[in-house]
Design a protein that fits this description.
Strands 2-4-5 form a 3-stranded mixed sheet, with helices on one face. It has 6 helices and 5 strands, in the order αααβαββαββα. Helix content is 53%, strand content 20%.
């Protein structure tokens, strides 16, 4: 475990993991492993308060379409009604970190579909709130227990 801790601290200084894993493993499997390792490093950076968010313009409708196309099939396989809705922000460009926002939405939707009721509902809402965009992931699953809420959020 000591080696992992030292390696994690070293890797946090730069994005060496993509290069190292790509060279060692290569191909699609290398990308999957690299993505997994980067997710672990992102969690470490987040816990250490060292995550820097990008501030770049991106198309919200494009992000919504990506979410729709990523999860439409898996929701249908579990007989989950799945919808992505843009309320008054269909043609809206926003400034923010598209990658991080996408990661959060993906994690919430994965959990909603995975732990929700078969035959249930998962809906992603994007709403214009004047100077902000509200993103909600709604489902009819059991939810998170009160005991676990502080740990998750």
């Amino acid at each position: 475990m000591g080696f992992f801790k030292e390696f994690k601290e070293f890797a946090m200084k730069g994005n060496v993991m993509d290069m190292a894993v790509g060279v060692i493993i290569g191909g699609a499997f290398g990308k999957i492993v690299s993505s997994l390792v980067n997710d672990i490093l992102d969690m470490s950076r987040l816990e250490a308060g060292k995550v820097e968010l990008e501030r770049r313009p991106f198309d919200l409708a494009s992000l919504a379409e990506d979410v729709r196309s990523i999860f439409g099939h898996s929701a249908a396989e579990r007989d989950v009604a799945f919808a992505v809705e843009l309320k008054e922000c269909e043609d809206r460009f926003v400034v923010g970190d598209r990658l991080r926002l996408g990661q959060v939405i993906v994690n919430l939707v994965i959990n909603s579909i995975r732990y929700g009721k078969e035959g249930g509902l998962t809906r992603v809402h994007f709403r214009d709130m004047l100077d902000k965009i509200l993103v909600e992931v709604e489902d009819n699953g059991l939810g998170i227990s009160k005991e676990d809420l502080p740990r998750v959020f």
